Amino acid sequence: MNPEALVDEQMPLISQYYPDPDGIYTQFVPQPGAAKTKARRRRRKSKGIEGVMRKRKLSSEQVKMLEECFGSEQKLESDRKERLAAELGLDPRQVAVWFQNRRARWKSNKLHEEYSKLKSDHHTAVLHKCRLETELLKLKEQLHEAEKEIQRLSDGFSSNSPCSSFSMEVGAPFLGEFGMEGLENVFYTSDQNYSAHGMEWDNLYYM
Amino acid sequence: MNPEALVDEQMPLISQYYPDPDGIYTQFVPQPGAAKTKARRRRRKSKGIEGVMRKRKLSSEQVKMLEECFGSEQKLESDRKERLAAELGLDPRQVAVWFQNRRARWKSNKLHEEYSKLKSDHHTAVLHKCRLETELLKLKEQLHEAEKEIQRLSDGFSSNSPCSSFSMEVGAPFLGEFGMEGLENVFYTSDQNYSAHGMEWDNLYYM
DNA sequence: CAAGAGCATGTAATTATATCA
DNA sequence: ATGATATAATTACATGCTCTT
Question: What percent of chain A has pLDDT over 70?
Fold first, then answer.
C-alpha cells in the first residue's frame, strides 16, 4: 500500500534563511489592549524540541497586505499567490498556508459570532414567549369571565339566544388542545441557555 | 524596552531526531469514515520552508495514552507530565503542548456542540411562539365575539348590569400593550441565523 | 517585587485526504 | 494518472496573564 519511503533525506541542511525585512524577531507587538504589561523577562533561546529556532510571525506589513487580499477574495489562485509572495518577500508556500489558516480562523470567528447572535435571538424569543404565555392566561381569564357574563345574561331571559352559536364556533376545541401546555415549558426553555453552561467559553469572544 | 536579542543562535544544527516507535511515517491511518481513499502519491521530502523537516505525528499509541490522561484530568501537573513523557518517549515539552492544544480543541468542540443544541432549542422556541401567536389570535377573536355577544345581550335590557365590572377589570390595557406586536417578529427571528453571512468578515477581525 | 510554572490564545507549518482540471 | 488547491486535524511555537513561591 505504501511502497514509497517517506523520508529520503533526513535532516535539515539548513539552506536558506530569509532576510528580516521588518525586524521580525526583535519586533515587539505592544497590543493596545493591555495597559499593565510589565514586559518582564523574555525567553532567551527558545529553541524548539528539534533544537531549531524557526522563523515565525510575519511582519505587520505583510499581514496587512495579506489581510487586504483576503478581504477581497478568500480564495487564492496561483497568480495572485505568486504575485503576493514576490511582493512580500515570502515563499509562495507561506502565502498559501497563510490563506488556509486564515480561512480556518474565519470560520471559527464566524461560529463565535453566530453563536452570540443566536443566543441573543433565543433569549429574545424566550422572553417574548413568556409574555405571550402571560397574555394568553389573561385572555383566557377574560374569556372565562365573558362566558360567565354571557351565561348570567342569557340565563335571566330567553334560553336559546345566538349565544349557542358563539360557544360552538370558537369554544372548547382550541382551549382543549393547548390548555396550559405552554406554561410548563416557559421557564424550562428560558433557563436552558442562559445561566447553564458552567464552563468558561461562553464569554470569551467579543469582536 | 527589549534589550534582549531573541535569536542568539541561528539556524538549525539538527541535533536530535526521534526514534520512530511506531512507524509514524509509514503508518497509514485508515479512517473509518472514508471508503474511497486512493492514497496516492506521498510527499517525499517535506522539508519545510526553512529547510527543516519536523513535526512528526505522534503515534496512535501515544495519542491513545494522552487521550486517556486527558479524559481523567484536563490539567497537567509537573508530575504527571514527566511521567507521561517518560512513558511515551516524548519530550515533556511535547506533552505540555499536546495538552494545551487538546484543551483548545475541546473548547472548540464544545462550542460546536452548544451551537447545535442552542439552534435546535431556538427552533423549538420559535415554533412554540408561533403556536402561541395563533392561539392568541383565536382567543382574541373569541373574546371579541363574546364581547359582542355581551353587548348584544345587555343592549336589549337594562344598561347597568355587572357587565361593567367585567370590562374594567381585564379589558383594554393588556390588549393595547401587546396587540399584534408578536407576529411581526416570528419569522424574522427564525430566519436570522440561517443563510445570512454575506461578506462582512473583512472588518470583523483584527481587534 | 521578581522569577517561574502553567494556561489561554493566536499563529505558522505539516500531515492526511478529497476534489478537480 | 498528475499536480494544484482545499479542508480538517495536528504539532509546535510565541506571547501575555495569573498565580505561586
Answer: 48
